[in-house]
Amino acid sequence: MSEIQLKYGCNPNQKPSRIYMEDGSELPVKVLNGRPGYINFLDAFNGWQLVKELKEATGLPAATSFKHVSPAGAAVGLPLTDTLAKIYWVDDLGELSPLACAYARARGADRMSSFGDFIALSDVCDADTARLIKREVSDGVIAPGYTEEAMELLMQKKKGAYNILEIDPEYKPAPLEKKQVYGITFEQGRNELDVNAGLLDNIVTENKEIPEKALIDMKISLIVLKYTQSNSVCYVKDGQAIGIGAGQQSRIHCTRLAGSKADNWYLRQSPKVMGLQFVDGLGRADRDNAIDVYIGDEYEDVLAEGVWQKTFKVKPEVFTREEKKEWLKGMENVTVGSDAFFPFSDNIERAHKSGVKYIAQPGGSVRDDAVIDCCNKYGMVMAFTGIRLFHH
Prior knowledge:
Elements: E1 3-5, E2 18-20, E3 29-33, H1 38-58, E4 62-67, E5 70-76, H2 82-87, H3 98-108, H4 111-114, E6 117-121, H5 127-134, E7 138-143, H6 148-154, E8 163-167, E9 176-181, E10 184-189, H7 212-226, E11 232-237, E12 240-246, H8 251-267, H9 271-274, H10 284-294, H11 300-303, H12 321-328, E13 334-338, H13 346-353, E14 356-361, H14 368-377, E15 381-384
Parallel strand pairs: 6-7, 7-8, 13-14, 14-15
Antiparallel strand pairs: 1-2, 3-8, 4-5, 4-6, 9-10, 11-12, 11-13
């Protein structure tokens, strides 16, 4: 099949719509089930590139959860702690395969943003991963293959209409890529940058010690940024993105947005949140929404009389600003990556508040000295990659 007709483009008024190979060759993707749309394919192809490169860079199975052409989460397949299994709502599934762990992490880091995602998997989808996907609200999945049991499980989603795509893992696109804007054709060389340890050799801070775990996290942050709408900043810890700030016009706004998501990820692990008693039968999405409001500034929206009873068996105590600040002091050894240089040290100050110890960024600002000095003040390790990672 050299082309697939789509229902419409980005919006229903944008017709006709299709994906096709300009040279008439076969598409490297098969639609095994469903009727994916224009944005679904954009998410699928960007997500596939991301997980493919994560697998190549780390040697571990990888997964990403995409929304509106940026990752909401991405991770490699490291085992889940009991705490993470609980806050990701998978503690009832028993021991999970590495690929399923990767998706649980990718989906779980920012569950509000991942709702209704398009999933990309680096490896053949197994039953554990399909079982996890089956219970979440999702638009579709792309993978290099599916086991028979996995297909049976996924075919039960959306009354049999769930989008299931199979990508040819050996496909290599042409070195030049094109797109049109306002009837004008843009052409550029594909971003074939190999994210490897060599990119992180130029350590510019006094502290130059990067343990292996942090090196993996730094690679993850850069690969995630490579497929995130710019400007973008990504916080990573223990093999997974925990906060992604995408598409902001200001670098500090990226850093704040991603940092607030990282903070929320850690706050969800606090005893106060872990101890919330939800009413029986409350869905995962409703629990996610309640937690997000509870740990935020608008907590009264879920704690008001006549409201809390719809969500909780027992009215929770307020999670005070002081308590949250104290809990967040335990957040440490976080990595942050930026797709372009940090122009001011305010980005470092904000990153420090979220436990950042390791930083990967291109460097090249006229204020690099001030940024380095700020890192040295906190004993951080910062590598200048010399490579910008804008993606549009």
